[in-house]
Design brief:
The complex is a heterodimer of chains A (140) and B (418).
Chain A lengths: L6 H8 L12 E7 L4 E10 L2 E10 L2 H14 L4 H5 L3 H8 L8 H16 L21
Antiparallel strand pairs in A: 1-2, 2-3
Chain B lengths: L13 H6 L7 E2 L2 E2 L1 E2 L10 H14 L9 H21 L7 E4 L2 H16 L5 E5 L8 H10 L2 E5 L9 H9 L4 E5 L11 H10 L3 E5 L11 H4 L3 E5 L10 E5 L1 H6 L10 E4 L4 E3 L13 H17 L1 H20 L4 E4 L10 E6 L4 H10 L2 E2 L1 E3 L4 H7 L4 E5 L6 H17 L3
Parallel strand pairs in B: 3-15, 5-6, 5-7, 7-8, 8-9
Antiparallel strand pairs in B: 1-2, 4-10, 9-10, 11-12, 13-14, 14-17, 16-17
Helix pairs in contact in B: 2-10, 3-10, 4-5, 11-14, 12-14
The chains are: A alpha+beta (140), B alpha/beta (418).
């Protein structure tokens, strides 16, 4: 378990980077993970095809919040083309910890919200194909 | 099979019971399985597994159709399971028991077959903040479709139903009262008989969600006085796909089926169809008969152990766990503080750790708990949290497993450097 909840993960969870309101945001998207109720709002200010600034607000588990925090550091200053290619594998590499199947959506919620903000995409990263694939949600 | 042991400090012989459940001897991540997610689903004893396997291996055929021996035998086992359920609930008649796949389907059956005939624009439906989504969303949607109102009764700070609000709602003459017997999120046991009596006095039809009650204590529908009761088999040792609606015969007789097709008819012509008798008019298509036969075996098992003894056992475990958890700083425990009106469920949060992280760390210790909203988002909103961690017991759980849970809480705090 110490493999998963490493110091830098807990640090991003407790002291998330790039949080709060983003003045002049050009793109904002709110998303949730219905399984656990985690929430993330991603706000971007895109200027000249580049992420001039990014902030997020969220509540949820350490994995979802740390992942979103790390993601904001990753994308700030990047061009939209560079952001577009960020996939689930990149998120797992950024986290640098083992992610079990049950926690994959926690790790990807930030990226999903980011892509929702930038391109209006509402599918889970990595589940874009086939089109219209059923979304799984939690039940009792 | 379990019997009361004179030397045991518990009313049931848990060691012998555990030997009946093959999965309980498995390991998770190299640790013994500590299964504390019984409010979500229960494990299955050998007796239930054998009963279902026996159908497939010995005599499987479709029910209510063939005149050959296997079909007659399968039909007899299926209808025998119905008799067992009727006896368990002390129903006035076996035909008052309709097999469905789960409690959710049961509520929907009542919502469609009774609700759409009887609930009109402006009518009042009374629900509670403790309801599982299965006993709220069908009524919310019905209310939306017909223009009815829905009143959601609140709970106090300990998760007990606000009786003052409930009494006030009864004065408004509700058409339907749809309430749970036991909260799956908090373990609050509602004073169901009193609530039913108040609702009946107000002229309401009453549906009780027994999903968390029928597996854990004696529920006598004639004593309870409600009009409908629903429950799921999978939470009471039976296979998923089994469950039942109990309803008063005079109500069921007047209700129009909502699933049409095979097996639910007595006569079909081009112009019209006559319905089959109760209970079959509500069981369109081939039923999950093997699961229902498994439910019959589960009822046998629970009755042999004794539902009073099971209830007592779960109360002791709940008390033991609550006492041990109160020693741990930095925990928020939800629900009634005393055992008088709670059982079987301990919902909590560890300060500074999200329930999903808690459950991941518990999993590494072999401890299975539920983390989330428990299909209880109304209650989570009331508690002001997105989710909780929930441990829930059944007849095979032990105080040693409570200790394992406590150990897992300490492990979680250590992982999070708290």
């Amino acid at each position: 378990m110490d493999d998963m909840y490493r110091d830098y993960i807990l640090d991003h969870y407790r002291n998330p980077r790039n949080t709060g309101d983003l003045p002049g945001a050009t793109h904002t998207y709110h998303d949730t993970n219905p399984l656990c109720g985690d929430e993330i709002t991603m706000a971007l200010r895109i200027e000249d095809g580049r992420v001039a600034d990014v902030r997020f607000e969220g509540k949820g588990c350490a994995i979802s919040q740390a992942s979103a925090s790390i993601l904001t550091e990753d994308v700030k200053g990047k061009t939209l083309e560079e952001v577009r290619v960020i996939d689930r594998q990149r998120i797992f590499e950024n986290l640098g910890i083992p992610i079990s199947p049950a926690r994959v959506k926690c790790a990807l919620l930030g990226l999903k919200a980011l892509k929702g903000a930038a391109w209006g995409l509402s599918t889970w990263p990595g589940e874009e194909e086939p089109a219209g694939a059923a979304k799984r949600t939690g039940t009792e | 099979m379990a019997v009361v042991s004179a030397r045991s400090t518990l009313p049931i012989d848990v060691t012998r019971i555990r030997a009946d459940f093959p999965v309980l001897s498995r390991t998770v991540h190299g640790k013994p399985l500590v299964y504390l997610d019984n409010a979500a689903t229960s494990q299955k004893p050998r007796q239930v597994i054998d009963a279902t396997r026996e159908v497939f291996e010995e005599y499987n055929a479709n029910i209510h159709r063939g005149v050959y021996e296997f079909s007659e035998r399968t039909t007899a086992a299926f209808e025998g399971a119905r008799e067992k359920v009727a006896r368990l609930l002390n129903a006035a008649a076996t035909r008052e028991v309709i097999f469905v796949r789960n409690a959710t389907e049961g509520v929907n059956l009542v919502a469609y077959a009774w609700g759409r005939e009887h609930i009109r624009s402006g009518d009042l439906i009374v629900s509670t903040v403790l309801e599982h989504h299965s006993n709220f969303v069908p009524w919310q949607q019905l209310a939306r479709d017909v223009g009815a109102q829905i009143a959601v009764i609140d709970v106090d700070d300990e998760g007990r139903l606000r009786r003052d609000q409930y009494a006030a709602a009864m004065k408004r003459g509700p058409r339907l009262v749809a309430i749970t017997y036991t909260s799956n999120g908090l373990g609050t046991v509602l004073p169901a008989k009193e609530l039913v009596a108040e609702a009946k006095a107000a002229g309401a039809t009453v549906l009780v969600d027994g999903a968390q009650a029928v597996p854990h204590q004696k529920v006598d529908v004639r004593d309870l006085g409600a009009d409908f009761l629903v429950f799921s088999g999978h939470k009471m040792l039976a296979p998923p796909g089994s469950g039942a609606v109990w309803g008063r015969a005079e109500l069921l007789e007047r209700m129009r089926p909502f699933l049409f097709g095979g097996d639910m008819i007595s006569r079909v012509t081009v112009e019209r169809t006559e319905w089959n008798e109760l209970p079959w008019k509500f069981e369109a298509g081939t039923s999950s008969y093997v699961d229902a036969i498994g439910l019959g075996a589960a009822v046998d098992y629970l009755e042999t152990v004794g539902l009073d003894a099971i209830h007592e056992h779960e109360l002791r475990l709940t008390g033991y766990l609550l006492d041990r958890m109160r020693e741990i700083p930095g925990l928020t425990i939800y629900g009634p503080k005393t055992l008088e009106d709670r059982v079987g469920v301990v919902s909590f949060n560890i300060d500074g750790i999200h329930p999903h992280d808690v459950a991941t760390i518990f999993d590494a210790q072999g401890v299975c708990v539920r983390a989330g909203h428990h299909c209880n988002q109304l209650l989570m909103a009331k508690l002001g949290v997105p989710a909780t961690t929930r441990a829930s017991f059944y007849l095979y759980n032990t105080t040693a497993e409570c200790d394992a849970l406590v150990g897992a809480i300490h492990a979680a705090k250590k992982v999070f450097r708290i």
